[in-house]
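Subject: design request, 345 residues
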């Protein structure tokens, strides 16, 4: 039923500006939840429990950060059957992001390009939204830096966000891989990454003592790193005892979309064209880390078969975003069904 309804709605949504359609869809989901229609039409997701990072997931299919940037729609999105929800990216201060238009569809390639630029309501309003949510499942919170914070002070923003979200987060994702905040990806490498992770782990120890619970820390990386850079990521994650890695964010490459309308737009490419690139990064990390920390596979999951490929290449969990835009909520159940039974990370 969910697949049929989305098939009917998609042409109408795709006739709208992408960002307008995005906002409208979230508003409709909230209204459907309030009227109890969402429960009637949501897909039935098969149970596929996974334990990872000390957390219990009812199924391994999560919502990637970026779809609910302000944590304003948690209850409606959770009702679709996700095993976990990740919200954000949130920054300490509110910021409008880049000028519109900043989201583009490439339907021939089942892809999106976005250059949102961490648009969000800021930490205080974001956490007020989280507090209003009734859902009590696994909630990831994705944190970043404000666009005008110099890189040499970026750690201050991440530390402020970590402290602000800690009490409500099931896990916290450190986003150093968005291509839409100038210079941010420099934090993925070498001494900059080591310094950032060291400070975050030290702060987490203090917060764990204060709150009586240890919240896992994850690192979200880009798909555009070469093997040497990925080995450096693995070494840093191991050295600082980070709890997981999300592979991957969007790509600056344009392989598979050359010549298509909007392909030359600045921003991060997501969807089917980055599947192989993201999965290759995932597999290399899995080989380097040897199961020491769980990996979340993201990037280009458009079918259950794509999710199965991520699991086979080392993912304990997967996340969806662009696939939802093209396939609708039926994709959640399809990917959960692809999970190997007894998976754990």
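Subject: RE: design request

Done. Sequence follows.
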């Amino acid at each position: 039923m969910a697949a049929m309804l989305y098939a009917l709605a998609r042409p109408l949504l795709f006739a709208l500006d992408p960002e307008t359609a995005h906002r409208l869809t979230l508003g409709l989901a909230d209204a459907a939840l309030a009227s109890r229609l969402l429960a009637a039409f949501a897909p039935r997701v098969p149970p596929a429990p996974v334990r990872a990072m000390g957390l219990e997931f009812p199924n391994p299919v999560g919502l990637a950060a970026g779809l609910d940037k302000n944590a304003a729609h948690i209850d409606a999105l959770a009702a679709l059957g996700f095993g976990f929800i990740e919200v954000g990216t949130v920054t300490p201060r509110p910021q409008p992001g880049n000028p519109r238009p900043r989201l583009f569809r490439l339907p021939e390639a089942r892809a999106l390009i976005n250059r949102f630029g961490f648009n969000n309501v800021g930490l205080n309003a974001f956490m007020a939204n989280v507090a209003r949510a009734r859902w009590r499942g696994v909630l990831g919170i994705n944190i970043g830096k404000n666009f005008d914070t110099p890189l040499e002070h970026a750690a201050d923003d991440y530390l402020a966000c970590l402290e602000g979200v800690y009490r409500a987060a099931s896990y916290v994702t450190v986003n150093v891989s968005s291509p839409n905040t100038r210079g941010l990806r420099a934090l993925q490498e070498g001494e900059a990454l080591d310094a950032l992770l060291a400070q975050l782990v030290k702060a987490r120890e203090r917060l764990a003592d204060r709150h009586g619970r240890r919240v896992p820390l994850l690192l979200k990386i880009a798909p555009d790193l070469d093997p040497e850079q990925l080995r450096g990521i693995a070494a840093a994650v191991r050295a600082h005892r980070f709890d997981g890695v999300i592979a991957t964010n969007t790509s600056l490459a344009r392989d598979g979309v050359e010549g298509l309308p909007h392909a030359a737009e600045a921003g991060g490419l997501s969807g089917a064209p980055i599947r192989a690139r993201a999965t290759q990064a995932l597999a290399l990390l899995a080989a380097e880390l040897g199961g020491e920390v769980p990996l979340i596979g993201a990037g280009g999951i458009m079918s259950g078969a794509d999710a199965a490929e991520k699991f086979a290449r080392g993912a304990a969990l997967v996340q969806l975003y662009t696939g939802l835009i093209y396939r609708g909520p039926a994709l959640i159940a399809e990917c959960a069904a692809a999970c190997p039974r007894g998976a754990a990370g």
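The CA atoms of residues 104 and 213 lie 41 Å apart.
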